[in-house]
Amino acid sequence: GENVEQHPSTLSVQEGDSAVIKCTYSDSASNYFPWYKQELGKRPQLIIDIRSNVGKKKDQRIAVTLNKTAKHFSLHITETQPEDSAVYFCAASRREAAGNKLTFGGGTRVLVKP
Amino acid sequence: DTAVSQTPKYLVTQMGNDKSIKCEQNLGHDTMYWYKQDSKKFLKIMFSYNNKELIINETVPNRFSPKSPDKAHLNLHINSLELGDSAVYFCASSQVRDRGPVNEQFFGPGTRLTVL
Fold first, then answer.
1. Looking at residues A21-35, what average pLDDT do you find?
2. Residue of B nearest to A104 (CA)
């Protein structure tokens, strides 16, 4: 089955700096890579996703890159703000018979210091 | 206008008891999921239902029994609760179209289960 590794497990940055989180996956058939943000006590919420036919995607201060050959993908947050503090999860999935099982990385706790 | 809702939000119970968690989505999705988030925040899928049919069962103990009365509801019943069942349980839903791409999963607010 799919295995997703995520690094680092914790990340502390100064407000205004960039944050980068990296993930690797094992199943070459995976073709959908979402990133979820989970604030304390809240539900995971999708912030950006990328499909395997795209190498890079950007949405305002957030960007994701995907290297299919190396089986890794990364999340980049620029100009970090205190409200970016949360746990971020990467995940990998592929289209299966009648569902799409998300396999999550272990999460990265991001702390943005004002 | 809540998209995915769960009840209860908190559940505190004794070992050995039986409890249920309910989930409802009003997004018109055909696929629903249960995830378990342990104390280290690790998120792992437990079950997936598509149009009331069990699709994914991730080697979860058979003390856990999901039930889907219709496309909009997926409930989780847990028998003989154990200390290790303490976790946050998230319901999620997505639209899975035949031969279509994988789509976003929307998560419910979670149910924090504490077994004493």
1. 94
2. B43
